[in-house]
């Protein structure tokens, strides 16, 4: 019942639900205690509403946002509380006294301060918001970007100034209880003084040296930097906050390019969620600003997603445009008809080329290049189950998809069957469960299935911990845990907390990466991964969520995987390990394999998962694995050859396309020159 209430109220936990209930019930309680009247009871109810409201704001509760949509926003809630305080005073027969009139004057003056306060905070944010935000771009030497105001002034500023009424409310309640006006006068004076001071402190930050240069000067500085840097290959991306992983997966590849790289983003929220990189990054939200930007030296533009805003760069004829995507699978998104707008489409292997030919969506075969998957370099090739360790099976289902089709994911129809059979396997195996980060965002049933599977694994982990057959080196685990603490502390020290960068403008000014620190952090993250897996027994079941450990790290410690139709399957094939894919839509094995290239070397599971035994047999006896050769052939078909390496293939493709772009530009210049000469001759 509580779980259902949490879901209906769209709150994140039972504590948030309790706070929401207390806040909603607190206001009727305030009215009741004002009518009675009872000063102590009113004070208690007021304290509950203050604390519950504050807690929900701290948690960023969805309910707070919804209340503002139904005219019960933050300011209204504070105003209601103040009006009820006046009702309490009237019911106490204090409506003719100094306390009552002082409270009215205070609250009118207090709300009079809200207008300049709101205007100032809005002006400061707007004037400090530059037309671009950058990382690893030296604007500091070109324009003056002043320090941001202290974050304490702007962070949740409306909530802060409204809470300044607390002094007046307390003072009035004390005065009403003691029938002595001094406490009210003091409280009112404190509230008005603090509110006025807050407004005065903000005023210097809206003009003069406290604000960055205007848009024209900032954009001129960016163009000046571009002329000096002369980027040659651009990775362009636009999307929502949740899609940041689609650009993050290409950062390491961009760092390894032979040509000069640049990353262009269109949304500020993507920049905020961009992983650390040494590549220069420019976030340009305005389409006109992007179209006027000096990108004359760029010859190749890479696109990781098919979105409408791509048109703002696609219109530039001096560069060649390439769709590289954010994963290679048999999903319909991998053969989007939009892809025909690009000069080329790059796929990992022959399978991608054939996929477009079969789909017949207008992408010509001549416009497809096979470049491998540079991101798969960290995936290790399987050497069999290590001596003395039980096999590990990774369950990595995809999510329900934007269309909410239950056949997209195995979670709802097969997930529990898969996990139960793996947990009961004899001889035993270890289960790692890593769900897709979007799980449950479209269908509540998917989120519910995820919770049930998590509960199953956590229960099995507790039972295995008590099983005498499974032992671990406790001392080694403690050393690994201590190493994790050390590494995390060092990474935090190197990365900083982010608090030193007051706002986006200041982050742009200071956002040039320290390469030495960047490389040390990369090394430490590799060490963290080793320590993480050593910090618990190799027999322990585990639910893995969040960014770390990464999916590929889970691949490397697993001996087999169960998944759904997604790029996860195509990526796992690089390991050469046995894998199973669930036919959640019940197409039948033959039709399922016909429609989905990546499953042709897989064990196909029905929703009852009765076929899991074949997968486990392949793990326990690699020599007798009937699909081993099929996986080798499929790996080359899907991902291309091992030699040359994928990054070498990628760089070659960039270089070849850059030459085509340059040839086109030279040809255009020659034709223009010839036309001008002919016009001169005729004149």
Question: Any descriptors?
Answer:
globular; 53% helix; alpha/beta; single chain; 14 strands; 28 helices; six-stranded parallel β-sheet; eight-stranded mixed β-sheet; 683 residues
General description of the model:
The protein is of the alpha/beta class and 683 residues long. Helices cover 53% and strands 8% of the residues. It contains 28 helices and 14 strands. It has an eight-stranded mixed beta sheet with strand order 1-4-3-2-5-6-7-8. Strands 11-10-9-12-13-14 form a six-stranded parallel beta sheet, sandwiched between helices. Helix 20 (474-495) packs antiparallel against helix 22. The longest helix has 37 residues, at 646-682. The protein is globular, with a radius of gyration of 31 Å. The N and C termini lie far apart (88 Å). The relative contact order is 0.08. Residues 1-9 have low confidence and may be disordered.
Question: How is the topology of this model organized?
Answer:
Blueprint: H1 2-9, H2 14-35, H3 39-58, H4 62-69, H5 74-91, H6 98-128, E1 133-135, H7 151-154, H8 157-162, H9 165-178, H10 182-202, H11 215-229, E2 233-237, H12 244-248, H13 251-255, E3 261-265, H14 268-272, E4 281-283, H15 287-291, E5 300-303, H16 311-314, E6 320-323, E7 344-347, H17 350-359, E8 368-370, E9 392-396, H18 411-423, E10 430-433, H19 444-465, H20 474-495, H21 504-510, H22 515-534, E11 542-543, H23 551-557, E12 560-563, H24 567-572, E13 579-582, H25 589-595, E14 603-605, H26 612-620, H27 628-639, H28 646-682
Parallel strand pairs: 2-3, 2-5, 3-4, 5-6, 6-7, 7-8, 9-10, 9-12, 10-11, 12-13, 13-14
Antiparallel strand pairs: 1-4
């Amino acid at each position: 019942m509580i779980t259902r209430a949490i879901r209906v109220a769209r709150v994140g936990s039972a504590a948030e639900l309790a706070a929401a209930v207390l806040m909603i019930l607190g206001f009727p309680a305030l009215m009741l205690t004002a009518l009675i009247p009872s000063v102590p009871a009113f004070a208690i109810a007021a304290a509950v509403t203050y604390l519950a409201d504050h807690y929900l704001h701290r948690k960023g509760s969805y309910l707070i946002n919804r209340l503002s949509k139904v005219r019960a926003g933050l300011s209204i809630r504070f105003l209601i509380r103040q009006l009820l305080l006046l009702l309490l005073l009237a019911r106490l027969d204090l409506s003719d006294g100094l306390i009552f009139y002082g409270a009215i004057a205070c609250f009118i003056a207090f709300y009079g301060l809200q207008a300049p306060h709101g205007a100032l905070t809005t002006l400061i944010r707007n004037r400090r918001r530059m037309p671009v935000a950058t990382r690893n771009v030296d604007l500091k030497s070109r324009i003056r970007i002043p320090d941001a105001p202290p974050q304490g002034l702007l962070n949740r500023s409306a909530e802060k100034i409204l809470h300044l009424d607390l002094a007046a409310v307390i003072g009035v309640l004390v005065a009403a209880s003691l029938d002595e006006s001094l406490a009210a006068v003091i409280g009112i004076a404190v509230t008005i003084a603090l509110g006025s001071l807050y407004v005065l402190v903000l005023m210097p930050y809206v003009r003069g040296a406290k604000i960055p240069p205007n848009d024209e000067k900032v954009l001129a500085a960016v163009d000046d930097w571009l002329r000096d840097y002369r980027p040659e290959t651009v990775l362009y991306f636009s999307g929502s906050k949740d899609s940041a992983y689609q650009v993050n997966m290409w950062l390491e590849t961009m760092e390894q390019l032979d040509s000069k790289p640049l990353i262009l983003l269109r949304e500020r929220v993507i920049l905020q969620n961009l992983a650390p990189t040494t590549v220069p990054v420019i976030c340009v939200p305005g389409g006109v600003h992007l179209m006027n930007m000096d990108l004359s030296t760029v010859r190749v533009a890479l696109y990781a997603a098919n979105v409408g805003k791509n048109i703002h760069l696609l219109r530039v004829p001096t560069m060649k445009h390439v769709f590289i995507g954010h994963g290679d699978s048999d999903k319909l998104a991998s053969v989007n008809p939009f892809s025909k707008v690009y000069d080329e489409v790059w796929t990992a292997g022959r399978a991608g080329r054939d996929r477009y030919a079969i789909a017949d969506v207008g992408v010509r075969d001549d416009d497809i290049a096979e470049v491998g998957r540079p991101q798969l370099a960290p995936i290790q090739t399987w050497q069999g189950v290590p001596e003395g360790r039980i096999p590990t099976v990774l369950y990595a289902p995809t999510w329900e998809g934007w269309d909410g089709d239950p056949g997209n994911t195995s979670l709802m129809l097969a997930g529990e069957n898969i996990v139960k059979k793996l947990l009961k396997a004899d001889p035993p195996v270890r289960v790692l469960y890593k769900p897709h980060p979007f799980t449950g965002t479209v269908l509540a049933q998917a989120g519910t299935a995820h919770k049930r599977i998590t509960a199953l694994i956590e229960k099995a982990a507790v039972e295995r911990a008590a099983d005498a057959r499974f032992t671990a080196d406790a001392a080694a685990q403690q050393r690994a845990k201590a190493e994790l603490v050390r590494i995390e502390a060092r990474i935090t020290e190197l990365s900083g907390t982010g608090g030193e960068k007051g706002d986006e403008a200041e982050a742009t000014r200071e956002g040039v990466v320290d390469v030495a620190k960047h490389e040390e952090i990369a090394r430490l993250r590799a060490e963290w991964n080793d320590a993480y897996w050593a910090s618990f027994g190799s027999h322990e079941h585990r639910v893995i969520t969040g960014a770390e450990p990464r999916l590929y790290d889970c691949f490397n410690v697993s001996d087999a995987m169960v998944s759904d139709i997604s790029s996860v399957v195509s990526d796992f094939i690089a390991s050469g390990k046995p894998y199973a894919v669930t036919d959640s839509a019940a197409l039948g094995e033959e039709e399922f394999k016909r429609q989905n290239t990546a499953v042709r070397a897989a064990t196909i599971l029905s929703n009852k998962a009765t076929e899991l035994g074949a997968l486990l047999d392949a793990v326990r006896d690699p020599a007798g694995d009937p699909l081993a050769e099929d996986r080798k052939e499929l790996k080359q078909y899907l991902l291309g050859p091992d030699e040359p390496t994928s990054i070498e293939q990628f760089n070659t493709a960039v270089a070849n396309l850059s030459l085509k772009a340059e040839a086109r530009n030279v040809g255009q210049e020659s034709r223009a020159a010839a036309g001008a000469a002919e016009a001169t001759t005729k004149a």
